[in-house]
Design brief:
- It is built from 4 helices and 7 strands; from the N terminus they run βαββαβββααβ.
- By secondary structure, it is α+β, with helices and mostly antiparallel strands.
- The chain has a 5-stranded antiparallel beta sheet with strand order 2-3-4-5-6, sandwiched between helices. Strands 1-7 form a two-stranded parallel sheet.
């Protein structure tokens, strides 16, 4: 089932997610719905707060980037990179900071350069509640950091300069009021 994505201004996007356990109601169906929702919006990541749930769950599928000429050197690693992250905790961020032009399904039509560290060490449970501690670098780390921010109540716009924030303020206000043209299901703050 395709779920509506919460728009900028929805209070759930600012909540720190709560941990869940393997008995969370209808978890397999929720994960399946999140993937279906993300794919219908042409996204590569989606966090539970973006569908209205303040829990520590996010998904990524970076495989579409395997065909992007910018990632040919890591295409093999990307082509099957589809993961579920439950109760994730980033243990360490390291490496060079690098800028990347980020966007977000909850903030359509806004893209800005965000600096993030190039490598992360993250602990999480997968969809079968098997615990993992993994290191990710490059675009994989970037996408995971972006989605991780969502379960911490942070948006990518929180990482931009005060000047850039002033420049996008009008767009953000319009998004929160539903004044945006999108081709996916979205729910706007009341």
């Amino acid at each position: 089932m395709i779920l509506p994505i919460r728009a900028f201004g929805d209070p759930v996007l600012r909540k720190t997610g709560k941990e869940i356990d393997k008995n969370y109601p209808d978890l397999p169906q929720l994960i399946e719905n999140m993937f279906e929702t993300m794919y219908s919006a042409n996204g590569i990541g989606l966090a539970a707060p973006q569908i209205g749930l303040d829990i520590r769950l996010f998904i990524v599928d970076i495989s579409p980037l395997a065909e992007d000429e910018d990632y040919l050197d890591i295409a093999e690693e990307l082509k099957d990179f589809r993961k579920v992250f439950i109760n994730a905790e980033i243990l360490e961020e390291s490496g060079e900071e690098w800028k990347f032009n980020e966007g977000c399904l909850s903030i359509p039509d806004v893209r800005e350069d965000v600096k993030r560290k190039s490598t992360i060490l993250i602990e999480y449970y997968d969809e079968n509640f098997v615990k993992h501690t993994d290191t990710f670098s490059d675009i994989r780390a970037r996408v995971i950091q972006h989605e991780y921010d969502h379960i911490e109540g942070t948006l990518f716009t929180d990482h931009i300069s005060p000047l850039k924030k002033k420049l996008v303020k009008g767009k953000l206000t319009k998004i929160s009021q539903g004044e945006v043209s999108i081709n996916y299901k979205m729910r706007f703050p009341k």
